[in-house]
Write a structure and sequence with these properties.
The chain has about 210 residues and is mainly beta. It has helices at about 45-50, 110-115, 180; strands spanning about 25, 30, 60, 70-75, 80-90, 100-105, 135-140, 140-150, 155-160, 165-170, 185-190. A hairpin with a 3-residue loop joins strand 4 and strand 5 (about 80-90).
């Protein structure tokens, strides 16, 4: 039996829809799109996440040397479809040993990227986008700017915009955050037709276990 959906902003419990409301409700944050239990890394998970996604499912491709795909997550339900996606990856950083990376795409207001970043609000917050970007990555053949965001102290957080949706990269440990800038990541949307990926799957990422007992 799969775990229950949780709040995308605080990963706390939700009150399910009822005869009086079709929405999932968090005590502190009100009506939210439910974060569904994470999925183990597999081709079946890729198919399940991409099938209902209204936002990109970003995959760095080609992957940096030694990196593996370690899980997926999504926010939304049968009524709304998937409005936020997470791709988890793990591998060696340049200087800090093992590292974990989450690539998140979401519609504005969902709050999932901010939740994983350790931010209180649903977006990158005040001052976002001021000054030149701290990193630029390729997104479907087009450059996308990312700015560092002050999140929880144990991780590095980058945020930007791509195709009208928020794009987040959250990296553990914090000192490994430079990999986003230095690896020159190139993102591809797993929903797009005509692509062939031979994804290397690894062990499930514990970074996706937020909110679970």
């Amino acid at each position: 039996m799969r775990a229950s959906p949780t709040c995308p902003r605080c990963f706390g419990p939700l009150r399910p829809p009822s005869a009086w409301s079709s929405a999932w409700r968090c005590g502190p944050h009100g009506d939210v799109l439910p974060l569904q239990p994470p999925r183990q890394p597999s081709e079946a998970a890729v198919e399940a996440v991409t099938r209902e996604a209204h936002v990109p499912v970003w995959m760095p491709w080609p992957l940096p040397a030694g990196w593996l795909v370690t899980g997926f997550a999504a926010a939304g339900d049968e009524r709304t479809g998937t409005r936020a996606t997470v791709v988890a990856l793990s591998g060696p950083s340049l200087t800090q040993g093992p590292a974990d990376l989450l690539i998140i795409a979401e519609e504005p207001g969902v709050g999932l990227g901010a939740g994983f970043a350790g931010l209180p609000g649903p977006d990158p917050g005040e001052g976002f986008g001021d000054g030149p970007p701290h990193a630029k990555i390729d997104v479907n053949g087009h450059p996308a700017a990312l700015w560092c965001v002050s999140g929880a102290s144990d991780r590095a957080v980058y945020a930007g915009e791509a195709m009208g949706d928020w794009l987040w990269a959250v990296v553990w440990p914090a000192d490994a955050g430079c990999l986003v800038a230095l690896f020159e990541l190139s993102l591809r949307d797993l929903r797009d037709d005509g692509q062939v990926f031979d994804l290397p799957f690894g062990a499930f990422s514990p970074r996706l276990e937020v909110g679970e007992a």
